[in-house]
């Protein structure tokens, strides 16, 4: 899972470097719930109801409408950029599938997955893969020298790492106690919340298309929350029996 996450981030960066416009990259990554669901179906042995497919579709469609209404300028994207962003989405799907399979395999042998164990070993594997790539491309030493010569940037990187570690604590808690797809739902919802906060706190305006996107996405999210709430008592009742 660590290796696939590193490659997902690398492919996203390469897509932008190869000329993919930022709006297209943002829009593509907003739909990562779809490849995560496919990855869990193919690699994790998961199964979903029609309602769950419709919920994911509503969230993706709403987020897409919201993203498109904010990008009014025309932009062109290269073929290689599109290829790399598609590879990034494939890696997102593989990550979700591997995480789902790992949880299932651990349960079969009587082990209970723990959030910080997942987080530690995933980040260790990500570090080893990233370190190997940096060494192969002769970028490790140049990067270290750059940070030593620019201490202000070094402090910013350290602050970013701290914030990332705190955020990942919640992410891995969600992955372990719920599901990688639920985690993707949360991260996708975050974008909608950020836009709404920007509107209400900074006085920005949103078009009819934008509000339609918000309502469609919120409808999908509320449907998923209702589904989880109604399923939990049923599961507890089965356990008691």
Amino-to-carboxy terminus distance? 36 Å
Q: What global shape is seen?
A: globular
Q: Which sheet architecture does the biggest sheet show?
A: none
Please estimate the helix content: over 70%
| Mean of residue pLDDT values | 77
Write down the secondary-structure element order: HHHHHHHHHH
Structural class, from secondary structure content? mainly alpha
> What is the CA-atom radius of gyration, in angstroms?
20 Å
How much β-strand is present in the residues?
Answer: under 5%
Kindly state the number of beta strands. 0
Poorly predicted segments: 233-241
Number of helices: 10
Throw out a few tags for this protein.
241 residues; mainly alpha; globular; disordered C terminus
Structure, explained:
With 241 residues, the protein is an all-alpha fold. It is 83% helix and 0% strand. The protein is built from ten helices and no strands. It has helices at 2-17, 22-30, 33-42, 50-70, 79-108, 115-136, 140-149, 151-177, 180-202, 208-240.
Detail the topology: elements first, then pairings.
Layout: H1 2-17, H2 22-30, H3 33-42, H4 50-70, H5 79-108, H6 115-136, H7 140-149, H8 151-177, H9 180-202, H10 208-240
The gist of it:
With 241 residues, the chain is an all-alpha fold.
């Amino acid at each position: 899972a660590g290796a696939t996450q590193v490659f997902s981030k690398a492919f996203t960066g390469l897509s932008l470097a190869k000329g993919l416009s930022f709006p297209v990259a943002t829009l593509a990554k907003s739909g990562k719930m779809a490849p995560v669901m496919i990855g869990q179906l193919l690699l994790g042995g998961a199964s979903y109801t029609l309602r769950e497919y419709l919920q994911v579709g509503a969230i993706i469609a709403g987020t897409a409408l919201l993203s498109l209404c904010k990008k009014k300028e025309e932009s062109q994207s290269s073929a290689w950029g599109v290829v790399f962003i598609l590879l990034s989405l494939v890696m997102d799907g593989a990550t979700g599938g591997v995480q789902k399979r790992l949880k299932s395999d651990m349960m079969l042998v009587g082990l209970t997955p723990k959030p910080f164990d997942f987080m530690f070993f995933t980040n260790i594997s990500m570090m080893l893969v990233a370190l190997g790539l940096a060494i192969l491309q002769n970028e490790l030493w140049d990067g270290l020298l750059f940070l030593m010569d620019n201490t202000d940037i070094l402090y910013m990187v350290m602050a970013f790492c701290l914030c990332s570690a705190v955020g990942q604590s919640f992410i891995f808690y969600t992955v372990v106690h719920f599901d990688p797809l639920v985690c993707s739902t949360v991260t996708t919802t975050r974008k909608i919340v950020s836009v709404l906060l920007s509107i209400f706190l900074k006085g920005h305006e949103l078009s009819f298309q934008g509000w339609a996107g918000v309502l469609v996405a919120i409808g999908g999210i509320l449907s998923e929350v209702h589904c989880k709430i109604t399923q939990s008592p049923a599961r507890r009742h089965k356990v008691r029996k």
